[in-house]
Amino acid sequence: MSPSHRIRRFLGAHRAFCVHAALALVIVLVALLAGVIAPMSPYEANLAEAFQGPSAQHWFGTDKLGRDMASRVIYGTRVSLAASIVLVLVISVVGSLLGVIAGYAGGLVDAVIMRVSDMMISFPGIVLAIAVAGLMGASIRNAIIALAVVSWTKYARLARSLVLKIRHSDFVTAAELTGARPGRLIRRYLLPNALPTLVITAATDIGTMMLELAGLSFLGFGAQPPQAEWGLMLNEGRAYLLDSPWLMIFPGAAICATVIVFNLLGDALRDVLDPRHAGPDEAVVELTTAPLA
C-alpha cells in the first residue's frame, strides 16, 4: 500500500479528527503569525479613539486607551495558547514520569508519591493555585508554575494505573528475565503502552489549562497590563460591560472557541488512538502489547 493511499484511507476513516486538527492548526497559525495578521499594534494607545465600537477600521472596537481590540485578541492567542501548551507539557511530563516510577517501583516510592498526590488533591485546585501565585507574585510565568504545582497529580495517578495494568504482562516479565534494567523497562515497554492515553489527556487539557490561566489572569494573579492576554482583557473590560460589551465579548468568544476546538480534538484523538472508543467502521491504531524491537 502506497503512502498516499494510506493517507487517503486515514483521512477517510478519521474525518472528525482531521477537521478538528485543521481548526487547531488555524489557531496555532494565528498565534505564530499574530504580527502579520494583526492590523495594528496591540499596545499602541490613542485616547482620542477610546471606547469605539466595532467598525471597518477597528473590527472588534477599541478599549479604554484606544487600543485596537482585534489586534489584542489576535496577539492574545499567542500568549494564551503558548502558556497553555507549556503548562500542559510540564504537568504531563512530570506527572507521567512520577506515575510510571511509582507504578513500577511500588513500595515506599509508590506510597510517598501517591500520598503527596493525595495531599495536593485534598485542596481545591484553583484556591491552591491562587495561594501559590499570590506568594510568588502576579505574572504569567508564576501562574504557569502555580497551576503546574497543583495539576500534575492527574497525570501521575493516570500513568500509575496504566503501568499497574501492564506491570506483570508476559512481555515485561520476559524483558526482566533477560536482564533488562528498570530504566530500559520503563523507557522501552511501560511508557510506550501508557503514551496514547496520556497524549489524549494532554490534548484535552490544553483547553482546560487555558481556562485556568485565564481565570488567574482575570483575578489578577496571571498576566499583567499592558500584556495582551484573554483573561486579563476580560478583567479590564468587566467594568465597562454595559456601555462597551465588546471589551468582554470578543476575548470571551476567543476563549470559548479555542477551548471547544481542543476539547473536540482530544475526543477525536481518543477515537484514533484508543480502539475501545472507536466506531465499528474506523481504522484505529492498536496499543503496543509486545516488546519493541
Automatic annotation (TrEMBL):
PROSITE patterns the record matches: ABC_TM1 (PS50928)
Cellular localisation: Cell membrane
Transmembrane region(s): 12-37, 79-105, 125-150, 190-211, 246-266
Membrane topology: Multi-pass membrane protein
Keywords: Cell membrane, Membrane, Transmembrane, Transmembrane helix, Transport
Domain of life where this protein originates: Bacteria
Family annotation (Pfam families): BPD_transp_1
Domain ABC transmembrane type-1: 81-266
Gene Ontology biological process terms from the UniProt entry: transmembrane transport
CDD domains assigned to the protein according to its UniProt record, in alphabetical order: TM_PBP2
Cellular component annotations (GO), alphabetically ordered: plasma membrane
Main location: membrane
Protein family (similarity comment): Belongs to the binding-protein-dependent transport system permease family.
Protein name: ABC transporter, permease protein
Native species: Propionibacterium acidifaciens F0233
